[in-house]
Amino acid sequence: MQAPEQLREEAWRCLREARATADRRLGRKLAARALELAQLAEALAHAGREDQAGATAAAGVYRIYFLSGGQFVAAHDVAADNDEAALALAYALQEACTGYDDFELWRDARLVAGNAVARRQPGGSQPGGIAGGTPR
Q1: What is the per-residue pLDDT across 24-57, written as a single tens digit (0 to 9) for each?
Q2: CA 35 to each of CA 17, 27, 41, 94, 125: distance values in angstroms, whole numbers, following the listed order
């Protein structure tokens, strides 16, 4: 069994390949595999951490808002150990699902990735920020 970090690296590799391929069907398969690997990595990391009382420590809950045509169309909650792992899950979900142009990733009231700031600014510009699901 691979370590969580190795699984995360493999998930990112699958996502890079999914984005690079011109074959949409292959891209969706690679993205789905990336999602599986990222979820397995988080499950293994979560199961491997025990707090002092012997109970498993809770992973953070992140919410992914999917957008199409600038409108929110779906939301999905994921559990992840950190922002990077949650971002891998968000990218994998976006790649695996059709019909979503963009996403925003939130942890409670904190924007992790997305363009919420751009939507609030006149003209949609976001100097020095992020756009299109790019990490902060």
Answers
A1: 888 888 888 888 888 888 778 777 665 433 444 4
A2: 13, 12, 10, 10, 31
In order of 64, 104, 111, 116, the CA distances from 72 in angstroms are 10, 9, 15, 11
Mean pLDDT of the chain: 76
Longest dimension (CA), the chain: 52
Cα-flanking dihedrals φ and ψ of residue 11, to 5°? Answer: -60, -45
Q: Is the pLDDT of residue 107 over 90?
A: yes
Q: Which residues of 80-117 are buried (b: 16+ CB within 10 A; e: fewer)?
A: bbebebbbbbbbbbbbbbeebebbbbbeeeeebbbbeb
Q: Which helix (H) or strand (E) holds 26?
A: helix 24-48
C-alpha dist (Å) from residue 5 to 1, 22, 25: 12, 28, 27
